[in-house]
Each structure stands twice: as C-alpha cells, then as structure tokens.
Amino acid sequence: MDEKLKTELSRQGIFATTLQDLYNWGRKSSIWPLNFGLACCAIEMIATTMARYDLARFGAEVFRPSPRQADLMIVAGTVTKKMAPQVVRLYNQMPEPKYVISMGACAISGGPFKQGYNVLKGIDRYIPVDVYIPGCPPRPEALIDAFMMLQKKIEAQYLTGEDRPRHLNAGEPSEFLVPRFGAHDLEPPQNPAIWKAPLVQISQAGTDESRND
Amino acid sequence: MTNGLYLPIIVLLLAAVAFALTPLVLAWIWAKRFSPHKPGPSKNAVYECGLESEGDAWIQFKPGYYLYGIIFLVFDVEVIFLLPFAVAFTGFSIGESLAMLVFLLLLVEGLVWAYQKKVLVWT
Predict the structure, then answer these.
(1) B36 touching chain A per CB within 8 A
(2) Which CATH class is domain A14-211?
C-alpha cells in the first residue's frame, strides 16, 4: 500500500493496514525467548526481565522453558564445545519463525577464551544469528537495544517475493547441522553453509564496503 | 413455544463454536498460503531437549512405593477421624461406638491384607 495514501487516510481518521503489516506487528510484539542461559551473560538477561529493566514492555517477558513454544534464542554466554551440539539441537527444535540474539563477546567469537581449546569461536558457525550484542557481559540496556533492533528487523520483512525471510521460503532449511562432540574438536568445526572464514586482506582494510553492515 | 425458549442458547452455542474454530481455520489457511511446512528429525523428536533421548520409555516401574504411599495415606486420613473419636469416646452410645469400630476394623483388615501380600516388605 502506498505510504502517502496511508498517511493521508490516517490524517482523515481512517486507519488502513496490510496483511503484511499486521503479521509483522503480531510477530514483533510477542517474541517469546527460550529460557536458557549459558554463563554470566544469563545473569544480565535475567536482570533485563526483572522490574528495573522490564523486558515485558516489549512483549518478550514470557521466557519459555520448551523450545517448541519459543521464537527467540538468546545465546547468553560462553558456548563450550561440549555444549554447542545441544544449543544447535535446541535451535532446530524451535518452530519457525525463529530468531537468534548472540549475546556477549563469547557467543560472538569465543571472547576471552578465543585462544583456548574448549570454547566455540562464535555460535554463528552453526546457526544463523540475527543480532549480535558486544560486551562482557552486555548491560541489560544493550539487550533491550538488541530486542528493539530485532523488532525493527521483523517489521521490515516481506510476506511474499524473493526477499521474504527464511521461514516463509519453502526452499530454505529450518534445521541446521548438529555438530558431534569429537575426540579433538567439534565435527565438523563449522557449518560451511552458514559460516565462512572472514577473508582478511590488510591492503583492503577500510575500503571493503560490503563488510560494513 | 419450548423451541423459542432454547433459540438464544443455540445461537450462543453456534457463536461459541465459531469463536473457537475461526482462529484455527484462519491459522490453517495462513499456513497453506504463506508459511511452508518445515518438519525435521530434531523438530519432530518426541522429547524436546538438547540431548537426544536414549533407550525406551516403555519400561516397567516397581509399584512398591506407590502401594506403600497409598497405605500410608489411608492411615493418615484415619488419624483425622481417630482424634475426635478419642476425645469424645466417653460420650458415645453403643451404636456410635460400634460404627466407629467397624470403620477401624475395615482399615485393619486392609492392613492385614497388605501384610499378607507382602506389600510392606521392601525388597
């Protein structure tokens, strides 16, 4: 629907909407996170839901203990290699549409344990992440910011067409490869369909526009 | 005449059924039209958990604790009746006393039965 016409109509007291807007409004106003925390970031996540920060304002206070009732996975904390298969399997068990917030330095890249042997260097090696929040741990305000960012992302999604999100596209997968906890490392060490090692070229530093999103 | 009396109830009944079915039908149409069905081995697993379930759920449980608990419960309830019985014991007539003693006898019979069935023996 034409935005100008919509504004003009609403000025005249007529509220017009589209199925897509209604659908996105419904999804963004009731994001139910999965009730699980991995490390210290989870304490900040708990604080976010409590009275002082009050995540309920965003319709996201209902933390579900079952992946079958959850829309959003907040990967809150260090993902050890032993825990990674369980996290991916829980993500697979969530129904579409599902979103992931990668909370804190550890979930993004392994954080302070990146050089260690037992920590996964970022959950985005196995599951698609929607919003990353840096911090160690991020403050509750940062998590709320991530929520609002996710809501904006949902709001802008299309119901039909080529640009429609994954859950509306029959060709895109809903489940991702669950790694196996092997003798030396996770097998495979990353899901090649999801994650590719970033190409670092010092000579192109600062000029590569495609990686500035 | 009677049919006319029941008409509002029928209307309300239809409204209630429609109220329950409309969202379900709308959700079904929505799923058909926009949202593709995406099942998978993890999503269709019987038990939702990060770890895969191992073994069979169809195993036999020992009912020992259950029987023990039931017998305890019977005597637990009995105590509630015994306390006022004991307090008012001297004021009872023969009939009332007999009724209470029959009640006690029934419970004691149950205990004897359980004892003979070796329910009280924990092996």
Answers:
(1) yes
(2) alpha beta
